[in-house]
Amino acid sequence: MTTATTATTESPESTESPESTASTTPAIPTFTVHAIPPDLLGKVRSTGLDVSGNPIEFRVAGGGEPLRCCLREAAPAEPIILFGYEPPLPTSPYREIGPVFTHAAPCPGPTTDAYPPHWRNRAQIFRAYDADGRIHPTSRAHDGGSPEETLTTILADPEIAQIHIRNITYGCFMFVVTRPTTLATTPA
User: Which of 153, 150, 181, 178 minimizes the C-alpha distance to 88?
Assistant: First the structure.
């Protein structure tokens, strides 16, 4: 089971229509979306403790809670858990622990290779980090429109190692975006 999904764009060198090049021009991955890793979720579920050693909270979803395991909103009455999570960053003053919801039991993870459809058009914070785990000035509030374009633009800066997508109101971590197939640090 994978927690990373990759968004792609057509090769910029191609001037032909997408229909005529679909089988000959490979898509170029522009970024990878990372949910919370299943092995970390397995540890949280089996021990009943979060990264700080606090007990996890079992809940019944009211509906709409953002699930960081499969990157969708919870349906009413789904069993979920709430716990403290430390998103992946190298050791730095910018490492944070914050509350996240996931399914109470293992799930298949994200079902798409694109920006999570349930969170499209939702204002988010795109917080960019460099390789040292420091917040980079390309970070920004995003209105929810065309997230792929904005993420690709941020990742075009070679200093960017990863982007944490966060809830604009509460500041909670949602998921990580990196260049294709890279994720520098995953806390245990």
Answer: 178
